[in-house]
From TrEMBL:
Membrane-protein topology: Single-pass type II membrane protein
One GO cellular component term: endoplasmic reticulum membrane
Listed SUPFAM superfamilies: PA domain (SSF52025), Transferrin receptor-like dimerisation domain (SSF47672), Zn-dependent exopeptidases (SSF53187)
Name of the protein in question: glutamate carboxypeptidase II
Transmembrane annotation, as ranges: 21-42
Catalytic activity: Release of an unsubstituted, C-terminal glutamyl residue, typically from Ac-Asp-Glu or folylpoly-gamma-glutamates
Pfam families named in the record: Peptidase_M28 (PF04389), TFR_dimer (PF04253)
Source domain of life: Eukaryota
InterPro entries: PA_dom_sf, Peptidase_M28, Peptidase_M28B, TFR-like_dimer_dom, TFR-like_dimer_dom_sf
Organism name: Noccaea caerulescens
Requisite cofactors: Zn(2+)
Major site of localization recorded for this protein: endoplasmic reticulum
Length: 707
């Protein structure tokens, strides 16, 4: 646990906070251990591996060394450097963060390289929104954000402008029409409007962003209803500062002109008019709006009263309020850069544990994503200290800094597409952290075989907000649960939904008010989300320990009995929803078989674990390797080569994006889509069979051998 420091740093002359660092005695002892280890290694190179030889005592020693080397002051310095300027992907300032991360990895002596791609990115050239009210007055809304940044006066590097609020990949054009408020813009909201006789055809719709639909889905549904344009506002309003939430409205993820294959430099690129490209973009323009401007429009509306469940006592329109909105954008081919650091495994270098975070930001990115970047840099620093002490992981660890995530997970998706075969053969797991710290409280999503491992890591890290308690204890006391990863909102998507790699996504804080606004700055972080950087330290500790567990344990710590239990719970929820109209027996039988195979694998692992640290036991090592391979491949069984209907790039039939949140299923996306689209019973039954076959494939992979 970190301890207080007596000095108090300042930012722009303002006293900020006391950092907590390891006490002097602990720091001194840690340095002595490193010096002794380094001296011994230099004079006895043949004995390097014995410093961290594979035995339970050294496993505990390794974990203690990793945890004790935490430094919140160091993480703070990383975040300060990364957020000095806005660094939108494809712009010149983004190269500064690229070089910062690259130089950091190289300075630690890590094997480092850059994977470069070309991608079509979208930028604003001109935006405007004007309203004409019933009294014939006209207002042209200010679409800029007020500047309240706390930046040192001598910091000339902070002069780069913040990109104006816009929706990336919105089509250029103008829309003029009466306004209709559509709540969150979901299908059920339009049904509610229809029930009171309100149509949005040839109107401009105003939507408030909710938790269920992303921007692209809001615009897509409005387009199908005949709307001419869309304005979207967020109720958090940048914490009362007048912030405006940027974002993308592209459908799907990855580079739109190289769909399904990597956008390597000099590779095939589709033309903009190609149907495979145009289908990714909306047909009507959209823009983000501040809460203040949205409230002016809402107050002017007449017509039918908003439904009670909308939490809006006003009117929905249409009335005599007319909106004229214009967006002119530019589509540009840009080079993007993923930075990769590799720590080679000593015994299984062909098996990979991958830790990833994206680096690009809409503005300054202190929360999204550079709180995660700072944690990743600190993990690399701590790993380098362990390497100097003689440690070498059993399996290879990759530390990945992705580019262009904000445009639709572009950097990570292109890398997954380029390496999908090797990932399928050798990737153990992908550990993602996007926004490491948004506020208080630990949250996580994972594929079920990783649940127990995540809990084990939480038990070793002291809670940053509750003295004397571990993160696991507070997580449990708050009745939090590990979520499932069907959402498509960060870089784990390509790994799990396309390549079938077991994945975890973690963050501190359920939400934060400056999301994608110009106020997501270092100053906001130290004043609001994590003044002492204790939560950053906790996240780096959890993330790094998970990497060590997966890279070092002789038997990969997967628990497929947890997966079997989760599948059974999913099956029960589906059966309840279908109410006997469609049989789920094929799925029930497949899950029953999977449960038996998972129990067999668990029993086998328990037996082999007793021999895990036995030296020179070739037979036991061979059996461990064979079981590990089966556990790695089991997740791939849930993939289907045809993918999800209408979203074929997404291959995972248990976890993936469903078209409509009203399905009430956060799993089995193909079945969920068939239900929400009122498909025939035969079509729903076909989707049930597809999932059943996927579960059977996973069972066969986990059991091994052939029929």
């Amino acid at each position: 646990m970190t301890q207080p420091l007596t000095t108090r740093p300042t930012v722009a002359g303002i006293s900020v906070f006391p950092f907590r660092l390891p006490p002097p005695l602990c720091a001194f002892l840690f340095v002595i251990v490193l010096l002794v280890a380094t001296f011994y290694t230099l004079h006895h190179p043949e004995a390097t591996t014995s410093l961290f030889s594979r035995n339970p005592h050294n496993v505990l020693r390794l974990r203690r060394l990793f945890i004790s080397s935490a430094s919140n002051a160091t993480i703070s310095s990383y975040l300060r450097a990364l957020t000095r300027r806005p660094h939108l992907a494809g712009t010149k300032p983004s190269l500064d963060t690229l070089n910062y991360v690259l130089n950091h990895f190289q300075s630690l002596g890590l094997e480092t390289h850059v994977a470069e791609y070309e991608a079509l990115l979208s930028y604003p050239a001109h935006i405007s929104v004007t309203a004409r009210f019933s009294n014939m007055t006209t207002v042209e809304f200010d679409l800029n954000e007020p500047v309240v940044y706390d930046v040192p006066e001598d910091d000339s590097s902070s002069s780069s402008p913040v990109v104006r609020p816009y929706h990336a990949y919105s089509p250029s054009g103008s829309a003029q029409g009466n306004v209709v408020f559509v709540n969150h813009g979901e299908e059920r909201d339009y049904r509610a409007l229809e029930s009171i006789g309100v149509s949005v055809r040839n109107c401009v719709v105003l939507a408030r962003k909710g938790d269920s639909l992303g921007r692209g889905a809001i615009v897509k549904i409005a387009e199908t209803k005949g709307a001419l344009g869309v304005l979207i506002y967020a109720e958090n309003d940048g914490g009362g500062f007048g912030g405006i939430e940027r974002g993308t409205v592209m459908r799907g993820i990855g580079d739109p002109v190289s769909p399904g294959w990597p956008g390597v430099v000099g590779g095939e690129k589709l033309r903009l008019e190609d149907d495979r490209v145009t289908r990714r973009f909306p047909k009507i323009p959209s823009l983000p709006l501040s809460l203040h401007n949205a409230e002016i429009i809402l107050a002017s509306l007449v017509g039918a009263k908003a439904p009670v469940e909308w939490r809006n006592s006003g009117r929905v329109g249409p009335g005599r309020t007319v909106i004229n909105m214009t967006y002119q954008g530019e589509m540009k081919m840009k080079k993007i850069h993923n930075v990769m650091a590799t720590i080679r495994g000593s015994e299984e270098p062909d098996r990979y544990v991958i830790l990833g975070n994206h680096r690009d930001a809409w503005t300054y990115g202190a929360v999204d994503p550079n709180s995660g970047t700072s944690a990743l840099l600190d993990i690399s620093r701590r790993f380098s200290l362990l390497l100097k002490s003689g440690w070498r992981p059993r399996r290879t660890i990759l530390l990945c800094s992705w580019d262009a995530e904000e445009f639709g997970m572009v950097g990570s998706t292109e890398w997954v597409e380029e390496n999908v075969v090797n990932l399928g053969a050798s990737a153990v797991a992908y550990l993602n952290v996007d926004c490491a710290v948004q506020g208080s409280g630990f949250f996580a999503g994972a594929t079920p075989q990783l649940d127990g491992l995540l809990v084990d890591a939480l038990k070793l890290i002291q809670d940053p907000d509750a003295a004397g308690l571990t993160v696991e204890e507070t997580f449990k006391s708050q009745n939090n649960i590990i979520q499932r990863l069907s959402r498509v909102d960060s870089d784990f998507s390509g790994f799990l939904h396309h390549a079938g790699i077991p994945s975890i996504d973690m963050y501190y804080g359920a939400d934060y008010p400056v999301y994608h606004t110009a106020f997501d700055s270092y100053d906001w972080m130290i004043r609001n989300a994590d003044p002492l950087f204790h939560r950053h330290v906790a996240m780096a500790g959890i993330w790094g320990l998970l990497g060590i567990f997966l890279a070092d344990e002789p038997l990969i710590p997967f628990d497929y009995t947890s997966y079997a239990a989760q599948l059974q719970a999913h099956r029960d929820a589906l059966s309840k929803l279908l109410q006997g109209k469609v049989s789920v027996n094929p799925l029930s039988m497949a899950i029953q078989e999977f449960s038996l195979v998972a129990k067999e694998a668990s029993d086998e692992a328990k037996k082999l674990k007793k021999q895990a640290y036995r030296q020179n036991d070739v037979a036991a090592a061979s059996k461990r390797r064979e079981l590990n391979d089966r556990m790695i491949l089991a997740e791939r069984g849930f993939l289907d080569s045809e993918g999800i209907k209408g979203k074929e790039w997404f291959k995972h039939l248990v976890y993936g994006p469903a078209a409509e949140p009203e399905s009430k299923l956060g799993f089995f996306p193909g079945i969920a889509d068939a239900i929400s689209m009122n498909s025939s019973e035969g079509m729903i039954e076909h989707e049930v069979w597809r999932v059943a076959r996927a579960v059977q494939r996973a069972s066969k992979a986990l059991r091994g051998g052939f029929t």
